[in-house]
Amino acid sequence: MTSLHLLLWIVGAILLQLAIYLAIGFWRHWQTYDALRTTVIEGGLPVKHPEDLVETEAVPTAWSGWRIFRVTHKVVENATQDICSFHLAPQDALALPAFMPGQYLTFRLDIPVVGGGTESVTRCYSLSDGPRANSYRVSIKRAPAPPNSTHPPGRSSNYFHDQVQLDSLLQVRAPAGHFHIDQSDAPVVLLAGGIGITPMLSMVNWCFAQQPAREVWLLYGARFAQELMAQAHLEALADMHANFHLLFCLSDADKTATLTSPYQRHGRIDIDLLRRLLPLKPYHFYLCGPTPMLASLVPALEDWGVPDARIHFEAFGPASVQRKSAALATPAGAPLPVGDTSAVTVSFSQSGKQMSWQPGSGNLLDFAEAHGIAVNSGCRAGSCGSCQTTIRAGEVRYREAPDFDPEPGTCLLCVSSPKTNVTLEL
Fold first, then answer.
1. 20 to 30 A from 154, CA-CA: which of 30, 34, 130, 329?
2. pTM (predicted TM-score)
3. How far, in Å, CA of 270 to CA of 294, rounded?
């Protein structure tokens, strides 16, 4: 064998090895892509085709009042079977307005009551997928009765799980809420606790449909791996995108048990973990979860030096989380100052009642109910708009801006207090 023949054999062997390496790499990439498509479908998250994406400028404006939607899919989302997704299509088949990822839908439910008949209940649930032209999705966790308590299970969540089926019709108000991801290219850190994952799923799916190069961190806290929602879908996204950093934090799992995924770890989401994980960058932080989680993390982020403008959060239920800067200005639990006096007069025009509101009397919804005035209410957190009431005279103030934007000349009683003597149409 001549030197030329030997050289050709060596070159051929190298080219063959390179071809095999490229073929293996392509095959692994295809397997990951195929797994992503499969987990998206199995997780109840429709595969996004280019023609299906919503262009903000091409969609209709939000509707007013209530619109009828039909349930097209109902999907159990986790091993404990206490999270269920509901895919909703408008009965009129008209195109839907886009929404900001992180916003919610408001539902008016006619829930059966003991003895016959129904009671109208208004509740808000976060959208859990990115915007689409023809459907919305919400994911709802069944709320059991609190342990060692006489309180009943969550009425609306159990109604959804037990009574809402395929083709059920629901009354829905247009997407709303001020908690949503910004549309810049700034890196983001999403911190979710329990069912607080739902708006984060909307943010993640929107980011990788519209901004696939954006740096995204998602830390998702749950007690056990069996409680996690969309685990396979999120892991497939993390496998596909090097700029998507995913971590499941399991707080009550057996510390000696073997974790089933490289994305899992024992423990809670806390500031020490964030300090260890995050590079020094101007992140925007988005938090959603139970109040104790937010009450711990929000001030910790502030102490770490994160500016208020980069901390965005949404707490469950009517409980609120106060920023440290606000707490320094106003003692926790104290109402905002009311002009130059310590008391004002609140008049209810329809009932003919007139009472003195003083610091410590609480918000106007609690104040009205304490004096025997029935008020239609729902979330009691400034989200659903059920307690919107006309102001006949005077002014009110809000400790924090409500998610629901009240109409001019009205207020949301559940999150407002009187600024001056005020007359309400109740």
1. 130
2. 0.79
3. 10
